[in-house]
Amino acid sequence: MLMGGLMVVLSESLMLAEKAGVSNDTLLQILQESAVGSRLIQYVLQICCNLFLALSIQSARSKGPAMRARTFETSFPLKHQHKDMRLALDMATDLALALPASAVIKDRYDLAEKLGHSNQDFSAVHEILTGKASR
């Protein structure tokens, strides 16, 4: 499920980049060199996109244990992830491009912000998805 969802969002990211005039090579390099460049991204890019990465990718810190413990020490604030999702969808709208999976994801971040998770780590969206957020 995770890999399938990641592939959909990666596909939408590539579509948006292409429509905005950013080459796929440039986007993939950005993904490789950013916090997004985890082993899972590397795997998806190599296997599913048939790309072989020349750059070594440092694994992102695992969020799983913190999510399970419901502790969300901030390494990237939820409000910034929400802003990034909003900006990407605004750009897609300007380019007449539908990104349905990303729109659903942004809705979850909308709710997380409304419920006061703005300054927690972006993984706090887990509280919304599991229904454990105080409403």
Layout of strands and helices, then pairs:
Blueprint: H1 2-19, H2 24-33, H3 39-48, H4 64-69, H5 78-94, H6 100-114, H7 125-129
Helix pairs in contact: 5-6
Structure in words:
This protein is mostly helical. The chain has 2 domains: 2-48; 64-129, N-(1-d-carboxylethyl)-l-norvaline Dehydrogenase, domain 2 (Orthogonal Bundle), CATH 1.10.1040. 60% of the residues lie in helices and 0% in strands. The chain contains 7 helices and no strands. It is globular. The two termini are 27 Å apart. The model is unreliable at 47-61 (pLDDT under 50).
Please, how many helices?
A: 7
Binned, the helix content reads 55-70%
**Oligomeric state of this protein:** single chain
Low-confidence stretches: 47-61
Could you provide a short overview of the structure?
The protein is mainly alpha-helical and 135 residues long. It has seven helices and no strands.
Keywords:
single chain; 135 residues; mainly alpha; N-(1-d-carboxylethyl)-l-norvaline Dehydrogenase, domain 2; 2 domains; 7 helices; 60% helix
